[in-house]
Specification:
It is built from 13 helices and 5 strands. It has a 3-stranded antiparallel beta sheet with strand order 1-2-3. Strands 4-5 form a two-stranded antiparallel sheet. Helices cover 48% and strands 4% of the residues. With 331 residues, it is mostly helical. The chain has 2 domains: 83 residues, DNA polymerase, domain 1 (Orthogonal Bundle); 199 residues, hpI Integrase, Chain A (Orthogonal Bundle). The relative contact order is 0.10.
Length: 331
Amino acid sequence: MKLLEQVQMVCLRRRYSPKTVQAYQRWVKEYLQFHRNKAGRWRHPRELGAAELEAFLNHLARQRRVAGSTQNQAVNAIVFLYKHVLADELAEDHLGRFAAERAKRPKVMPTVLSVDEVKRLLDAFDSANSQYGLMARLQYGGGLRRSEVVNMRVMDVDLDRQMLMVRHGKGAKDRASVLPATLIEPLKKQIAQVRTQWERDKAKGAGDAVLPDAVANKQPSAAKRLGWRYLFAARSLTEREDGNGLCRKHANASAYDRAISEAAKRAGLEKKVTSHTLRHSFATHLLESGYDIRTIQELLGHEDLSTTMIYTHVAATGPVGVRSPLDNLSV
């Protein structure tokens, strides 16, 4: 088995997300390519140690000037390679200690929309992009990540209890979030559309849902259930990854991003608006409404409270909510 395939297999065993798997494979490849260019030949990772890792990370910081988060991802990928993929071949302290020049990660305040700006944005989705409009409303209303909206299944929507179940969120953790009462009827219509589309797909031999590997292995019959269908599905059928027929995957995340950007332009918003802006706005608006930071942390699925605390810096109840002394002067 090739090295990058080994990286993929170990990542999958540890239930890493597909994006993380791809990123780790890419960084391992770049790490080895960097040293191939220097040595004029391919060198196996066992030939490379702390000094070589330092040289690669310094290259990222100095020559490529990557962001701190990008360099941290590279470090994580390469340490993962040695610690988990090559653990049986190398000594535990093979890398030893390394002191590479680290790219500084700037502290960037999140972009937050006002309540009025959110309303203008959501109202700006045209009828041709009604599915994306509902996705945006659900993302803002539940504080979801883009991937969580895109990957949501029919069974994750509990209309009776007004709850959203987020399964395998960041860090492969499940959590519950709030389902806005104003979205109950639109979601009922969306689920009805999913059912209709499901019947059409079955007639074409493409009715089986795309299942996570663990579910496909233990409960293959789940593919026949409506609950496992994506709530927001792709517009067209595509070939299954195993080559066994057609399937309908989830809505395209990039197309969703473009729809948000186009809606922001139509709404006349000057701020840079992305799908994550809706999540930032959800958290900030809850904080401004008086909800405690721990509750918001749970709804967002943050492991560390310090991650949630950043919203205290942009909420109108925080530092930016202070009345400026200039306003007390008669100018």
